[in-house]
Amino acid sequence: MKDGSYWKHMEQYVRDTQMRNGGYGNEDKADIIQNKLKEILTHDAFFIMVYDHCDGRNSHAFDYDSNQAVVSLNKGPSRAEQCNVIVYRSLHWHLASDEEKKRLNDEGTSFKSQKIPFSDDYEQFLKHTNGSAIHETKLLAMALKNRNIANRRVNCEKKPGFYTTVTDTKNNVFKFFAGFR
């Protein structure tokens, strides 16, 4: 499946993983998805984030291109076993110049240094941030740090983007990822 045709099956695979593995922890679920992605013959680079059930856009938010991200929310055999999964594929990480990677890192570092405004809907904040404060991304994602987050990468030495911790003006702490195009 080197041609990219695998991607149309990823959303269903992710949901099946969530539903069939409710008794497993987030680390195990992330490993299952990572191992599946390792089987695919592609040059795409992947970032996987699995974390506990969340309600509301003040707990987690996303701005993404569906051709490059699968976001599956609050799925599992029971509410207690529900989790959220993000699988991001960067089509250009391996083609990015050192200068492009440095720019993303510099923009992410600048973004991290400022407290983000508290909101009941961080999705709107991310939509504004994408392209204005951080460029060359196809996914911006944030989730409360206390949600038992597991993350993995595939086909890259470092995550295909910028991953950090950010704080809002009410001192809520989030994990934040900006995925390089």
Characterise this structure:
- The chain has one domain.
- Helix content is 28%, strand content 31%.
- The protein contains 4 helices and 8 strands.
- It has helices spanning 7-20, 26-38, 98-112, 122-129; strands spanning 45-52, 60-64, 69-75, 83-90, 137-144, 150-154, 161-167, 173-180.
- The longest helix has 15 residues, at 98-112.
- It is globular, with a radius of gyration of 16 Å.
Shape field: globular
Mean pLDDT score, rounded?
A: 93
Note the total helix count. 4
Beta-strand residue fraction: 25-35%
Brief overview, please?
This protein has helices at residues 7-20, 26-38, 98-112, 122-129, and strands at residues 45-52, 60-64, 69-75, 83-90, 137-144, 150-154, 161-167, 173-180. The protein is of the alpha+beta class and 181 residues long. This is Phage protein.
Properties at a glance:
single chain, 181 residues, alpha+beta, four-stranded antiparallel sheet, 4 helices, 31% strand, DUF684, Phage protein
SSE topology:
Blueprint: H1 7-20, H2 26-38, E1 45-52, E2 60-64, E3 69-75, E4 83-90, H3 98-112, H4 122-129, E5 137-144, E6 150-154, E7 161-167, E8 173-180
Antiparallel strand pairs: 1-4, 1-6, 2-5, 3-4, 5-8, 7-8
